[in-house]
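If you are new to this repository, start here. Below is one unmodified record pulled from the training split, so you can see the exact layout before writing a loader.
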Amino acid sequence: MRLIRGIAAMAALIDESGGVMGRQLTIEARDDESTPAVGVSRANELISAGVPMIIEGWNSPAALAMQPVIARAGVLDLTAIARSGAMHCQPFARPARAHGMSL
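And here is the target side for that same chain:
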């Protein structure tokens, strides 16, 4: 919950200074319940909602399950906290969908 409050606080600061490329940020939070299957379900919900980016990764097993789903959807993925030797940093690739924004 603290992580979500921190993200929301940063989004508010960004919005106060004009947003991102003139657009205000919207935070849509989902609880993955630290469970891989629930995490994948929540990632699919967000992907279906058309979010341009997902910040995931409180729990390594859930993050590892979510990452390929998010990648296949072409959504920008940021792992916030989870750490596992099985996670590998990937070079940034432009998301397949930019939702009307030039990236």
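Two things worth knowing about this chain: The beta strands are 53-56, 76-79. Confidence is low (pLDDT under 50) at residues 98-103.
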